[in-house]
Amino acid sequence: MAAGERPFAERVVAWQRTQGRHDLPWQNTRDPYRIWLSEVMLQQTQVATVIPYFERFVRALPDLQSLAAAPLERVLELWSGLGYYSRARNLHACAQRIVARHDGVFPRTALLVAELPGIGPSTANAICSFAYGARLPILDGNVKRVLARHAGIEGFPGERAVEVRLWDIASERLAVTDVEAYTQGMMDLGATICVRARPLCAACPVAADCVARTTGRAHLLPSPRPRKPVPQRAVTMLLALRHESVLLERRPPTGIWGGLWSLPEIPAAMALEEFCRTRYSAEVDVGQALGPIEHGFTHFRLTITPQPCRVVRWTDAVNEANTLWLPLADVDGAALPAPIRKLLVTIARRQGALDL
């Protein structure tokens, strides 16, 4: 700490009081449901993106009991477009577990919260800090960046040894009082000041003794994830239209887009006509393939080639729980992966099924 400077936590709290964020829709409440929902939505997603999803979600499912009672399909519809869909499935599973094992009351200790599906130690600590005033450190991605720069910690924060060191620093610097303001301040610093590229060091309340700033390494810390070649995958998907409806299949509950409705995926070794004949007892005329759609995931990139076809004969035997004909007019609100929704919305507008 530089001579004459207040302790780290005091400076963060004072800055948060005057410069931090105070009017987000999940703030100014002790409701653990809203706090939990916001923390899950904010994982790997920016605040500006989360706000409309959060507001729509709590309008539809205003409390833990309504979330637990809702079908997973409804939860996925509300989440659709936000990405990382395992978060939505875990959220639903959490609510049902809390109802079954905790009498519908959100747990009050971080240890119990961290036992719930999809909630790690940092998220559990943040929830208990905001909901119950617990004095616990957090270490999300933004906070890792702030602490790694300020303390001059080398290495990728995802490495175990580096993460352990950062947890130690987070605990050492934790505010004695005003823990909620400190926790929010650390989040705000990482999101608005100590950003990944071009940090605003001149506006930072802890810049005076920041090792990264004083040594000219703010652009180097924390160390990036070691680069690996990004795997590429390619799939062809059936785009079957009939009576202003599109054929969809529900994806398996695990894996990419788990539980969402999507275009059927055609096996690489199978011709489209054979696929439709063996899977649906249908005859189709194959159209010209549409341009490929590129979509990036955390660990790979996916190239989707939509293959349109004209239905010649359909047996109407497609009434299984995992298959449906969705009217094009309804695609905008369905639980679809973002790139599939974008494609179908474009088609629906071209055909006049959706208003421009």
Description of the molecule:
The chain has helices spanning 8-19, 32-41, 47-60, 64-69, 72-79, 86-101, 110-114, 121-132, 141-151, 160-172, 179-193, 211-214, 272-280, 338-350, and strands at 232-242, 245-250, 261-262, 265-266, 283-286, 293-296, 301-313, 323-327. With 356 residues, the protein is of the alpha+beta class. It folds into 2 domains: 8-214, Orthogonal Bundle (Endonuclease III, domain 1); 232-350, Alpha-Beta Complex (Nucleoside Triphosphate Pyrophosphohydrolase), CATH 3.90.79.10. Strands 1, 2, 3, 4, 5, 6, 7 and 8 form an 8-stranded mixed beta sheet that branches. The longest helix has 16 residues, at 86-101. The radius of gyration is 24 Å and the shape is elongated. The model has no long low-confidence stretch (mean pLDDT 92).
Rg over CA atoms, rounded to whole Å, is: 24 Å
CATH-level-4 superfamily name of the largest domain:
Hypothetical protein, domain 2
CATH architecture of the largest domain: Orthogonal Bundle
How much β-strand is present in the residues? 5-15%
Helix content: 40-55%
Number of strands: 8
- Counting structural domains, the number is 2
Order of helices and strands: HHHHHHHHHHHHEEEEHEEEEH
By CATH, the topology of the largest domain is Endonuclease III, domain 1
Count, helices: 14
Counting helices, strands and paired strands, the structural category is: alpha+beta
